Amino acid sequence: DTGVSQDPRHKITKRGQNVTFRCDPISEHNRLYWYRQTLGQGPEFLTYFQNEAQLEKSRLLSDRFSAERPKGSFSTLEIQRTEQGDSAMYLCASSFREGGGNIQYFGAGTRLSVL
Amino acid sequence: LAKTTQPISMDSYEGQEVNITCSHNNIATNDYITWYQQFPSQGPRFIIQGYKTKVTNEVASLFIPADRKSSTLSLPRVSLSDTAVYYCLVGLANAGGTSYGKLTFGQGTILTVHP
């Protein structure tokens, strides 16, 4: 399968713990995005990278959140000192900047439950 | 980014054609119109994208009137497996500026197909 891959699919953690999610984009895609989705809502943008550069961060991304894409390939999203309000589906998407109409291809997501 | 308005929910029956209309009165000259489909516990999946007139692919058709203030996603002969949430998005397709990499989702339209 050459689609966007996210790991883990599910994560249950206790409040105050740190969690890290991984995203592997489609190999030739140079843009990578993170979104968060809560029940009944559409995905909300968190941040995106072009290659290894983080070009935009949403105001939703508090200082407890950090994202990296060290070599311009896979990306990690870390949440420190998790809170119950962090419970959501975290989606990763990738696209190819040159042409392609900025069509973003999404992974299946990581569902985080903070107890 | 232009705001979109679409029905919260729609019901249909197998074999019928379904048309979902999206309003985007403030669409900008360079904005494209893109539709995504999302099943429970999965990431959104690209369906179709257009700028004006009509676009058709193997999954759907997209009708865009001359003023581009609305668009209609047409799904021919739906089946039970088309039950999903459908999102209409408006924005730059070939995003050259850093501000337009993200996608802005609304709440979408919940389509339920009945036997």
Task: Offer a concise description of the structure.
Chain A is mainly beta and 115 residues long.
Which features characterize this protein?
heterodimer, A: 115 residues, mainly beta, four-stranded antiparallel beta sheet, 0% helix, B: 115 residues, Immunoglobulin-like, five-stranded mixed beta sheet, 9 strands
Protein architecture, described:
The complex is a heterodimer of chains A (115) and B (115). With 115 residues, chain A is an all-beta fold. Chain A has no helices and eleven strands. Chain A has strands at residues 5-7, 10-13, 19-24, 31-37, 44-50, 53-57, 65-68, 75-79, 88-95, 105-106, 110-114. In chain A, the strands form two sheets. In chain A, strands 2, 4, 5, 6, 9, 10 and 11 form a seven-stranded mixed β-sheet that branches. Chain B is mostly beta strands and 115 residues long. Chain B has a single domain, classed as Immunoglobulins (Immunoglobulin-like), CATH 2.60.40.10. Chain B is 0% helix and 47% strand. Chain B is globular and about 40 Å long. Chain B starts with 8 loop residues before the first strand and ends with a strand. Residues 95-99 of chain B have low confidence and may be disordered. The chains are: A mainly beta (115), B mainly beta (115). At the A-B interface, strand 4, strand 5, strand 9 and strand 10 of A face strand 4 and strand 8 of B.
